[in-house]
Write a structure and sequence with these properties.
single chain, 692 residues, alpha/beta, TIM Barrel, Immunoglobulin-like, 2 domains, 28% helix
């Protein structure tokens, strides 16, 4: 806008838990209420998310940017990643190989200047976001069926190990020249989990939450099956004749080791487990008898699979260093789309060539053992990261008709994660679902959904984005009632850039994004959006944020002002003086003369239960727009506006009064707003005039 501002718990947790024989009756969790909304939804409305692609966020090239930026890039500790697109050509290869990739350590550098880096300090101090959403950080498929000729990393969502952070994201591993596949005689495996711990601690010290991104309807090819040290394998439960439906009663089946789980990823930890656990000792002995040549992490991974293998899988268990799809094929969906796979080659595939789909069919009663085993494993993954301080999870592609993953399975997994968090004395994690299928079903399970706003508000394909269009789009986000929010974003990592096909330039895009801050939503900004970055940062390949570099063709001359605009919008949303912005209660305003919406201006009023009132006006496009609005008597009564009292309007960004004090009667009759073509928005707080 170069605007006036620049001048200065899960629904599942509270479901009735009746009979333990009812597999959908989870142990009830504490769930308060705030203003008629669930405590979890109310908490989620306070999120201001910033999505980070760690590899690209602080990537650089030694020949790009100012002299200081080039020198910093030359000194940067960065992974040397080999391009492995087998049998493919890549016209961009020479340019891409010159990119020095970012690491998690870069995020904790002490600078809030985006030219020096995208850091926690920048995200918090400049943008005033309060949540960092990290795209997948885990070792992933970078060798098998790479879907893009220019990939050297594979898809982040083709994960091969959910219990370790990729070594290439850790400076310590890079300096040692080690990764998660390095052998003991090379210096031992190395992963980036410690670097993530540092980021979590630094984020929490600033009051930032950290979200992790996971995809549980599929795994990448050649999945390395690590697991926690101490848990009761489903195989043991079956052998004891347990009723697996009773696992829904989290209190009755609570395992103490769930409180602070450890990963079984070394032979020393395996030997220790065998010494103190008779069943583990027996399983290890039977594995060693079958596969006497296994050693190192291959033996550890084989044990984690062997102790959870069903009888039919043990009969054909491979002894060579193996992967999950060969050792425990029952984790995967078979070619018939209904039963678990029977072998590594019997897996369902679609055009996602870099992944294999997991088996999730709850309604396939003949294979409940496979389903429960997988469900418990996915719980352990999320619980492990929650125990390390992760505050929430973005859940990729949650319901899947092919694999069978449905809301009830998520109800179990997320409910158990929340229950474990409360046992640890942690805040309940928040859950954001990317949902294409059963949106209404998932609204009962998670706190936020991505679909709806992210596609509609940008109005691609030539829609006329006037005030009525915006009103319809924002009203559509209310379709879940009080159960779940809709993510307010112009784009996510796999969308086109906001300027592509929308008609937005960086400033109009920012104005449209700001609409999400005036709705009951969870606003999210994609890294680089606040800098006017026009380039589509593909999430499958190494890249860099070009707009960070001085002299780059993508550098936006007004990036400092634009980032400040985004930051101020986020700051005032959470200012207690403007608490109406967090409320669900709102009404659209109508022009006094026509009784209709003015196509050029989005006009609405928000109010809280204690009658904090904020009027919001958005100049949608680059027009000089002025209009007089009226406030009907019934709305004025709701807002507690009285005809005889004197009121003033205060700009929430500058805290300056706009116009003279006026009686309630005058304000109701003529609420006038005038925004010039370069002013994107005006948010005005209603206050009583101070006594004369």
């Amino acid at each position: 806008m170069r605007s006036s501002l620049l001048l200065a718990l899960l629904a599942l947790a509270s479901c009735d838990a009746s009979s333990v024989d009812d597999p959908s009756a989870a142990e009830p969790l504490a769930d308060g209420k705030a203003d008629g909304l669930s405590a979890a939804a109310a908490e989620a409305s306070k999120l201001l998310l910033y999505e980070v692609q760690v590899r690209a966020a602080n990537a650089c090239r030694e020949d790009l940017g100012s002299s200081a930026q080039r020198a910093a890039c030359s000194a940067k500790v960065a992974p040397d990643v080999e391009y492995r697109a087998e049998g493919m050509s890549c016209a961009e290869l020479d340019d891409l190989e010159d990119i020095r990739l970012g690491t998690l350590d870069d995020l904790v550098e002490p600078t809030n200047d985006f030219r020096q880096g995208i850091t926690l300090a920048y995200i918090h101090d400049t943008l005033h976001a309060n949540t960092v959403w990290l795209m997948p950080l885990f070792p992933n498929n970078d060798r098998w069926s790479i879907p893009d000729a220019c990939d050297n990393l594979g898809s982040p969502y083709a994960v091969r190990d959910y219990f370790h952070v990729s070594a290439s994201l850790s400076r310590a591993c890079i300096v040692k020249g080690l990764d998660e596949e390095s052998s003991d005689d090379e210096g031992g495996p190395c992963d980036g989990t410690a670097a993530l711990d540092t980021v979590i601690a630094a984020a929490h010290a600033r009051g930032l939450r950290v979200f992790l991104d996971v995809a549980f309807n599929h795994f990448g090819h050649n999945y390395d099956f690590y697991d926690t040290v101490d848990h009761v394998p489903v195989r043991q439960r079956i052998a004891k004749g347990e009723d697996l439906d009773k696992l829904w009663r989290f209190d009755k089946t609570w395992e103490a080791a769930t409180l602070h789980p450890r990963v079984l990823d070394s032979e020393a930890a395996l030997d220790d487990l065998a010494m103190r656990d008779a069943l583990a000792k027996k399983d290890l002995a039977s594995l060693d008898a079958r596969c006497p040549d296994l050693a190192g992490r291959a033996r550890v991974r084989a044990f984690t699979m062997w102790r959870d293998a069903l009888d039919w899988e043990r009969e054909r268990f491979p002894c060579e260093p193996s992967y999950l799809e060969a050792a425990l094929p029952g984790f995967y969906l078979g070619k018939n789309h209904w039963d678990p796979a029977r072998a590594a080659g019997d897996t369902f595939t679609n055009d996602w060539r870099d992944v294999k789909f997991l088996f999730h069919h709850e309604d396939n009663q003949a294979h409940q053992h496979e389903l429960v085993r997988e469900r418990e494993y996915l719980f352990r993954v999320l619980n492990y990261w929650a125990s390390r301080g992760i505050d929430g999870f973005r859940l990729d592609h949650t319901t899947d008709p092919d694999g069978g993953m449905a809301p009830n399975e998520w109800r179990y997994i997320l409910g158990k994660v929340a229950y474990a968090a409360t046992k640890r004395g942690q805040a309940r994690p928040l859950f954001l679902a990317e949902e294409f299928g059963d949106q209404q079903g998932m609204a009962d399970v998670v706190d936020m959904l991505t679909e709806g706003y992210v596609f509609d508000i940008t109005g691609r394909n030539g829609q006329t984005k006037d005030a009525r269009y915006v009103e319809r789009t924002l009203s559509n986000t209310e379709r879940f009632g009080d159960r779940a929010l809709v993510l307010a974003a112009l784009e996510t990592h796999d969308e086109k850039r906001l300027t592509d096909g929308t008609g937005f330039d960086p400033w109009t895009g920012a104005g449209f994004w700001g609409l999400g801050l005036t709705t009951w939503s969870a606003p999210m900004i994609l890294m680089g959006q606040e800098l006017g970055e026009p380039y589509g940062l593909g999430f499958r390949k190494s890249d860099l944020l070009r707009s960070r570099f001085e002299g780059s063709p993508n550098a936006f001359a007004e990036a400092d002002q634009l980032a400040a605009f985004y930051g101020e919008m986020m700051r005032v949303r959470l200012d207690p003086k403007n608490r109406a912005l967090l409320s669900k209660d709102h009404a659209f305003l109508r022009a006094r003369d026509s009784g209709q919406a003015d196509a050029r201006l989005y006009a609405a009023v928000k109010w809280s239960s204690d009658k904090n009132v904020v009027f919001v006006f958005h100049n949608l496009w680059r027009d000089n727009a002025a209009q007089s609005y009226f406030i009907p008597d019934d709305l004025a009564k709701t807002l507690a506006i009285k005809d005889t009292l004197a009121y003033r309007l205060v700009d929430v960004f500058t805290e300056q009064q706009v116009g003279a004090c006026r009686s309630g009667a005058d304000l109701k009759w003529d609420l006038y707003v005038a925004l010039d073509r370069d002013t994107r928005l005006q948010w005005l707080r209603l206050e009583l005039c101070p006594p004369q």
